[in-house]
């Protein structure tokens, strides 16, 4: 069993939006922040930047887009503050611990598979009491590959000692998590917390709106019952 972390187990978006609002003073820059973060995380995974440098450079690039040009010291000060507010806001979704308790009771080996970039993700997992549930934790910045790259999925399976065809991966992003897992030979499950979407799901993909639905889905999958 493989599980994404941010916005699957941890309500990351809510805490990240709050931290950004604290740093900027308003809530209108989220899309810009996400775009610049994606660009700089790609550079991190490509080996062009280390994690500490990436955070500082990203923050300077973000404020430059807003017309404010920061020196390194000021960018570091603002980023440190943002990280502190972010960490204060980390919370688990209500359906997480009951699902993890059930999964652990089944005896299934469990891995966390995250596209995060740095050691902070392990700190987050530990501080929220999640570490005890996982037999293996994979962080994209450590592996050198990020979802939907099959490498990170196959590395997770290798760490758990199971074949991809025997493994289910659940995550909140349809392409990176569910389709990426399917294309890596696993069973992909999309956790769509926002509710039903128009149109049919891609072939081979299952969808749930809550982790409370995962046990029934897994039982049906194992028994061959269509859901």
From TrEMBL:
Known cofactor(s): Mg(2+)
InterPro entries: HAD-like_hydrolase, HAD-like_sf, HAD-SF_hydro_IA, HAD_sf
Keyword tags: Hydrolase, Magnesium
Superkingdom field: Bacteria
Single GO biological process annotation from the record: small molecule metabolic process
GO molecular function: hydrolase activity
PANTHER family cross-referenced by the UniProt entry: 5-AMINO-6-(5-PHOSPHO-D-RIBITYLAMINO)URACIL PHOSPHATASE YIGB, N-ACYLNEURAMINATE-9-PHOSPHATASE
Protein's name in the database: HAD family hydrolase
Species: Solihabitans fulvus
Lineage: Bacteria, Bacillati, Actinomycetota, Actinomycetes, Pseudonocardiales
């Amino acid at each position: 069993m493989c599980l994404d972390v941010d916005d699957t187990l941890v309500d990351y978006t809510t805490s990240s939006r709050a931290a950004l609002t604290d740093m900027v003073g308003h809530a209108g820059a989220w899309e810009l922040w996400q775009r610049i973060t994606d660009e700089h995380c790609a550079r991190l995974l490509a080996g062009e930047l280390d994690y500490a440098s990436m955070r500082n450079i990203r923050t300077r690039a973000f404020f430059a887009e807003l017309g404010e040009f920061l020196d390194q010291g000021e960018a570091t000060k603002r980023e440190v503050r943002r990280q502190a507010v972010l960490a204060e806001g980390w919370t688990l979704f209500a359906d997480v611990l009951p699902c993890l308790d059930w999964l652990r009771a089944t005896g299934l080996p469990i891995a966390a598979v995250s596209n995060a970039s740095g050691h902070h993700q392990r700190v987050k997992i530990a501080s929220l009491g999640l570490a005890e549930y996982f037999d293996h934790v994979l962080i994209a910045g450590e592996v050198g590959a990020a979802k939907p790259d099959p490498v990170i999925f196959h590395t997770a399976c290798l760490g758990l000692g199971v074949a991809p065809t025997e493994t289910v991966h659940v995550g909140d992003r349809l392409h990176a998590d569910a389709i990426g897992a399917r294309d890596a030979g696993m069973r992909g499950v999309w956790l769509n917390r926002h509710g039903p979407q128009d149109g049919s799901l891609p072939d081979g993909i299952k969808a749930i709106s809550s982790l409370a639905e995962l046990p029934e889905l897994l039982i049906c999958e194992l028994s061959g019952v269509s859901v």
